[in-house]
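Task 17 of the worksheet. Students: predict the tertiary structure of the chain below and write it out as structure tokens. Keep your answer in the requested format; marks are given for formatting as well as content.
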Amino acid sequence: MMLPVLAAALGVAAGVPLIRCLWCLVGLIRLFPNHARAHRSKWGWLQLAIAPEAYVLSAAAVALGMQRDAALANASLVALTCALAGAAAALAGLAASLWTFVTFPTIGTGHYVANGQTVISRGPYGWVRHPTYLGVLLMWFGLGLAYRDVFVLALAAGVGALYALYARSEERMMLAAFGDAYSSYRGCVGSFLPKSLRPFQARATAHPQ
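Model answer:
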């Protein structure tokens, strides 16, 4: 019973990044039109540095997926626990990404503010300011944890630091675009981890500003 469950968990942890990679490739089609129509747009070394991240993650997933037989040969309760936790993290990351897209369909690659855009505080944005980036990090750590790969976990930590800088750069643009509205939102909602057990809109309704 252990081996089929372990194989399935390892397959999920490696498969989720590939799904995201295909999604990012489709997103490239929207890249230039979105930025061309944007009210504000920003490109710099951070945006260029983060651009290949999804494809690096996919390459790591393929490389680890090819080692699945070796992982199955060393099956243990610890391996199964890590694989299940990693698969759960990867699926949570995918769910966060999908929820973000459903909430904010015009979201795309890079930093830009679309014409007519407002501060988004519903859906996953009611819990964290950067649900997409949180989803990405869950996929990275899920893959590394599932396969117990120290190198991928170290890469995940580096990607996390890069996304923290990326988020700060994005927020400076959002503050310039939305001023006090975004400042108020940022003060109430955590960056990657929730500040409250209730979403932002529920708190704003209970305590109107």
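Marker's comment: The domain at 2-206 is CATH 1.20.120 (Four Helix Bundle (Hemerythrin (Met), subunit A)). The CA atoms of residues 21 and 54 lie 6 Å apart.
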